[in-house]
UniProtKB/TrEMBL annotation:
It comes from Iodobacter fluviatilis. The chain crosses the membrane at residues 6-23, 35-57, 77-95, 107-127, 150-180. Its main location: membrane. The lineage of its organism: Bacteria, Pseudomonadati, Pseudomonadota, Betaproteobacteria, Neisseriales. InterPro entries: TMEM175-like. This is Membrane protein.
Length: 192
């Protein structure tokens, strides 16, 4: 089966996720710059979550660009990834509302961790139908970057209870690692 509907559906869900996050931003109360101060943590949480969702969208786009077909397991694996991404707005809002309380930061990390688990599952099922010599299989390789990301999230979750800022720095470090689209796939895109 073709991949067009999967791409369109995924793009739509990700657009809705971002829309939900932006709707959480409220107009400041007041007329001067001081009215913006209470909004700083809310805005920073929004920016970071927007970047995280954008990273997934960007890499999802690249991954689907080099595959040619999908099947039922791929559809379910993709839904699994989208499910975890869809929880980013609510966990972001809780972090913001709680002023980055440890439980909220840990739950946010858990959602990011589960999305990072869903990503290689999707890749696995795509590789399974395209073969171990496919562009995706070659590009995905051993997925060291993905494994390092999962490990960093796993470390950050309990660390959030000791010091939320250490956990947040680890979340940011993972975002930095993935900010530029996956070079393993980028290299294969340039061969077309």
């Amino acid at each position: 089966m073709g991949k067009t509907r999967l791409e369109a559906f995924s793009d739509g869900v990700i657009a809705i996720i971002i829309t939900i996050m932006v709707l959480e931003l409220k107009v400041p109360h007041g007329e001067d710059a001081h009215a913006l101060l209470p909004m700083i943590p809310i805005f920073l949480g929004y920016v970071f979550s927007f970047i995280m969702v954008g990273i997934y969208w960007n890499n999802h786009h690249h991954m689907l660009h080099i595959v040619h077909k999908i099947n039922g397991p791929v559809l379910w694996a993709n839904l699994h990834l989208l499910f975890w991404l869809s929880l980013i707005p609510v966990t972001t809002a809780w972090m913001q509302e709680s002023h980055f309380a440890s439980q909220a930061v840990a739950l946010y990390g858990f959602v990011l961790f589960m999305a990072s688990v869903a990503w290689p599952i999707l890749a696995h099922f795509l590789i399974k139908i395209h073969g171990n010599q496919s562009e995706l299989a070659i590009a995905f390789g051993e997925d060291r970057k993905g494994k390092i990301s999962m490990l960093m999230y796993l470390l950050a979750i309990p660390l959030a209870f000791l010091n939320v800022w250490i956990a947040i720095v680890l979340y940011i470090a993972v975002a930095v690692i993935w900010f530029i689209p996956d070079q393993r796939i980028e290299k294969n895109l340039h061969h077309e």
